[in-house]
Amino acid sequence: MKNSLIKTAVTGAALALMLTACSSSGGGGTPNASTSAGAAAGGGGGSSSCDNTITKKDLPTVSVWGWYPNMAAVVDNFNQGHDDVQVCWTNAGQGNVEYDKFQTAVTAGTGAPDVVMLEADRIANYVVQKALVDIKSYGYDAVKDNFSAGAWKDVSVGDSVYAAPVDGGPMGMIYRTDVFAKYGISVPTTWDEYRAVGQKLKDAGGPLLGDLGANVPAVMMALEIQKGATPFKYDPTKPADITIHMDDQASKDVLGYWAGLVKDGLVGTQDQFTPEYISGVVGGDYATYISAAWAPGYLSGAGVGKGADAGKFAVAPLPQWDPSNPVSVNWGGSAFAVTTQAKNQALAGEVAFGLYADPASLKDGWTNQIIFPLNQGVLTSDEFLNAKVAFFNGQQANKEVYIPAENAYKGFTYSPFGAFYYASMTTQLGKINNKEIGGADAATELQKTVVAYAKEQGFTVTE
């Protein structure tokens, strides 16, 4: 059974297609870092040097892999503020590039760093391989109030905490204010109203309502969860058992809804995060973009909102399936986990909880639109709350949309083979976009595919 579960994780890593996202990683569809042997804490990674300069050379070091764009500054901030430990940082690659290297080290039993940056939906994949440490006893109590229950759930498996949260992706609806004004459109608050907007635009010869990218299955999973679906139930105390529900009514309804938008020509079917898609966003081909709080940084970095389209974007809360029971969902988010190869797990835990947690690093991250921080010290600050976001033409997007969404988010339990699930969802979304299949049939096929895979890997599946 153990070998089967490890095979599951390795196969999942090989199938990963950048289908999950976080504000700065790009893993998930967002666009797209060698480690010294350290003194007491050690460190793997197979490198003889750090990507940063350590000035307090007599202190023990903890090796870290991470890809945040401002990681060099974050590491320097940590090292300057600590006299008991220093971070030796390596840019081992972003998203799947890092995951492939980490998987190689996990399989070999050597070469992993002490601390590794992971997207939340990858954590269970490594937990099932016993590659990560439960860090609840290494500083959790001191920082637990700094994050919401939802943020902690995303980095936990069962009752164990496997990573320290940093950033997240509460979802909202970005829209073109010029398009809405031209066609007399009110901001939709429900998915029924959203569809009506698309029909109005089509009838008037306007742009597409939005886009159903087959390469962003994490979005579809989030929208299904918003409607009440629970794709997976997994308890690490019973590692061979998993519950899979992908053909429930909520999932069929959501896939059917989007299949209907495609069939009626209300949304596009372009893969997102491609030059063609970005060109369409810049050119006003889409009236809306269903995305997460990290999107402004990504879009502006890709050149959106910097030319003739500058000042033409705003954001509103995500439309709801049931306005009397609003549900907040998340797309993306990253955290720091301690690996079982760490030579000093307690010291590595201190680094995981303390890295990218100081005020200077957090401020640099959110002011430069690198991350949407989950630290409550930032989320409750007047500066962050009242910030006027340049990409949204000065709109106070944090206060109006993203902070309420994050505060309402309850968290999610991911599966130990999320990459395979995402790849399978991508296949079904591709069929929907090609009008080969309806939503209900896509859900049924997805259920069959993922259940068969789980059983093949040795899981006992409850449907």
Automatic annotation (TrEMBL):
<keyword id="KW-0762">Sugar transport</keyword>
<keyword id="KW-0813">Transport</keyword>
<keyword id="KW-0732">Signal</keyword>
<dbReference type="Pfam" id="PF01547">
    <property type="entry name" value="SBP_bac_1"/>
</dbReference>
<protein>
    <submittedName>
        <fullName>Multiple sugar transport system substrate-binding protein</fullName>
    </submittedName>
</protein>
<feature type="signal peptide">
    <location>
        <begin position="1"/>
        <end position="26"/>
    </location>
</feature>
<dbReference type="InterPro" id="IPR006059">
    <property type="entry name" value="SBP"/>
</dbReference>
<feature type="region of interest" description="Disordered">
    <location>
        <begin position="30"/>
        <end position="49"/>
    </location>
</feature>
<dbReference type="InterPro" id="IPR050490">
    <property type="entry name" value="Bact_solute-bd_prot1"/>
</dbReference>
